Amino acid sequence: MKVSLSVAIALAVCAFGSAAQTPAQAASPENGRKAFVTHGCWQCHGFEGQGSAVTSNGKVVANTELPLESFDAFVRSTNGAMPPFRETILSSGDLADIYAFLQSVPKPKDPKDIQLLK
């Protein structure tokens, strides 16, 4: 059976592409929830990443629109009220898991759809 070079390359790219996962795809929301609590993120951001009325700096982080790379860069190098979490404190795996957890939090209902508010 004779296979052309272009077909062989295409097959290799498909095989590699389906086997390779990005860190966000391989991340675990369950482990992310645990890491979110263990590393104290909940203290400012709430247990579901919903933000906090207690501290004005506790922003909503659930369902962030930041891509993982931007989220990672912010968490690692922030110089605001939130302390930076370097790799020695929060591993890349834990951070990817936290991101997956925050992306898995169900979005809040539209107030128009809540019976008690009608």
Write a brief caption for the model.
This protein has 118 residues and is mainly α.
Describe the structure.
The protein is an all-alpha fold and 118 residues long. The protein is 47% helix and 0% strand. It has six helices and no strands. The protein has helices at residues 5-19, 23-26, 29-38, 42-45, 68-77, 92-104. α3 (29-38) crosses α6. It is globular and about 50 Å long.
Structural class: mainly alpha
How is the main sheet built?
none
Distance between the termini: 70 Å
By CATH reckoning, the class would read Mainly Alpha
Number of extended strands: 0
Second CATH tier, the architecture: Orthogonal Bundle
Tally of alpha and pi helices: 6
Strand content: under 5%
Structurally, the number of domains stands at 1
Average pLDDT level: 82
Shape: globular
Report the radius of gyration as a whole number of Å.
20 Å
Considering the chains and any ligands shown, give keywords for the structure:
118 residues, mainly alpha
Describe the protein's topology.
Blueprint lengths: L4 H15 L3 H4 L2 H10 L3 H4 L22 H10 L14 H13 L14
Helix pairs in contact: 3-6
